[in-house]
Write a structure and sequence with these properties.
Number of helices: 4
Pfam family, one: AA_synth
Strand content: 25-35%
CATH architecture: 2-Layer Sandwich
InterPro entries: AA_synth_put (IPR009569), BB2672 (IPR035936)
CATH superfamily: BB2672
CATH topology: 60s Ribosomal Protein L30, Chain: A
Protein name: Amino acid synthesis
Shape: globular
Organism: Tistlia consotensis USBA 355
Length: about 190
Amino acid sequence: MELIQIRKIVTQVEEERHEFGPPAATPLIRGTVACVMKNPYAGRYVEDILPMMEALKPVGLEMAQRLVAAMGKAPKEIEGYGKGSIVGPDGELEHGALWHVPGGWSMREVLGDSKAIVPSAKKVGTLGTAIDIPVHHVNAAYVRSHFTAIEVRVADAPRAGEIVYILAMTSGPRVNARVGGLKASEIKGEDGQR
């Protein structure tokens, strides 16, 4: 059985310049890439689904590279990340969980020395289902200025027998972030949290 059969890849990038208060000195770039593919385990229970996790690594790597390029940033300029998946109606949530390792690994591989765990969301849905991908700082999960989410939806996915795997990245903090807490400039970089 061929595990990876991609139907399409959707990349979206936005540039935030203003958020009520003063305009951002540097616009915030937020981007997502969604890969719509066949779910080889749809419609039945399969005990050993781990081969798919390994097979997804090159897909994740291509997606992470594609997203950084689309955002027009160098890898070291990416400050926030997250991942997620939407499983079609004849799949199970565990099929979306297969993205945990390849999704996180691929971004760390492309971005370099990222320390923080990659936040994640997953759900079962159908055509046009939206999901909020949680995002936080790539090196310290406690940096409040980078807490956000990016909504992702693919109008014609997931169809029955499909999964949508998603990566999200940002180039910095929320525009006009001002709720205190650990600052990016104060990161120690020892544990991925602070």
